[in-house]
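[recover] target loaded
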């Protein structure tokens, strides 16, 4: 902007050197997420996949209780808000009554692995034809950083000031491995978004998970290892490194269940 005036979006597009654009499935608005939080990045990956598959007009999103409670403002798709932990149950009802729709839930570790553990277990066991995006940042982000079901051993939180003691609090729950053991789950993987390589892998998994639903194969779930710079008391770059160095050793990235019919879609 050599003359001091802002360059419009139309002028940038006309120059032909745009590297990225906002996906149509994302609303043009600000989010409430803390600086450096990867919720926004994961939102973008999902929105890009929706656009690429051409399913925006028939997608229904089920928003959770947690940091992403307001995500229905950020996606330009039909959306509903579920009670805490009940997103899989609501998604089940939506999909059974409107089987032509693409229904996905977006849930944090407290929503899915704690109060909603029964919901996701039974939805996966029944093989509900829905897609679940599970964001694991090992802490209750919205409510001041208490211990979550996925908090690592020794990890300090506001409710475990001396670190998580597995003899007292139990072990972190590896949800991808648990869900993969249920017969109705057809695609269960764990990905992360701490660098360019893992972001690309995560995007590919999102597309595959939605394709599995479009093919009517059963429940698909992606667990994303995410960060929480605010409650981890770290800078955004340090929090991404912490995912790699601390979360990945306990929650290994990889494919935990990919049935043959899904492999054919990849």
């Amino acid at each position: 902007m050599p003359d001091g005036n802002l360059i419009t979006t139309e002028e940038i597009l006309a120059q032909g050197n745009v590297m990225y654009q906002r996906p149509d499935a994302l609303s043009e608005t600000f989010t409430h997420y803390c600086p450096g939080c990867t919720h926004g990045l994961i939102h973008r990956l999902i929105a890009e996949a929706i656009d690429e598959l051409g399913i925006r007009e028939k997608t229904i999103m089920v928003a959770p209780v947690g940091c992403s409670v307001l995500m229905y403002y950020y996606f330009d798709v039909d959306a509903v808000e579920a009670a805490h932990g009940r997103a899989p149950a609501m998604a089940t009802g939506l999909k059974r009554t409107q089987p032509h729709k693409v229904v996905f839930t977006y849930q944090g570790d407290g929503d899915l692995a704690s109060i909603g553990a029964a919901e996701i277990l039974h939805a996966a066991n029944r093989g509900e034809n829905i897609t679940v995006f599970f964001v694991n940042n090992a802490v209750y982000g919205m409510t001041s950083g208490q211990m979550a079901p996925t908090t690592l051993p020794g990890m300090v939180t506001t409710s475990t000031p001396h670190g998580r003691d597995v003899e007292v609090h139990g072990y972190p729950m590896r949800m991808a491995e648990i869900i993969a053991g249920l017969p109705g789950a057809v695609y269960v993987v764990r990905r992360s978004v701490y660098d360019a390589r893992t972001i690309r892998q995560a995007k590919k998994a999102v597309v595959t998970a939605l394709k599995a639903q479009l093919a009517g194969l059963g429940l698909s779930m992606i667990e994303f290892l995410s960060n929480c710079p605010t409650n981890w008391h770290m800078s955004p770059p340090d929090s991404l490194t912490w995912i790699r160095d601390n979360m990945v050793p306990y929650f290994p990235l990889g494919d935990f269940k990919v049935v043959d019919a899904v492999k054919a879609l990849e």
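[recover] notes: The chain has one domain: 24-263.
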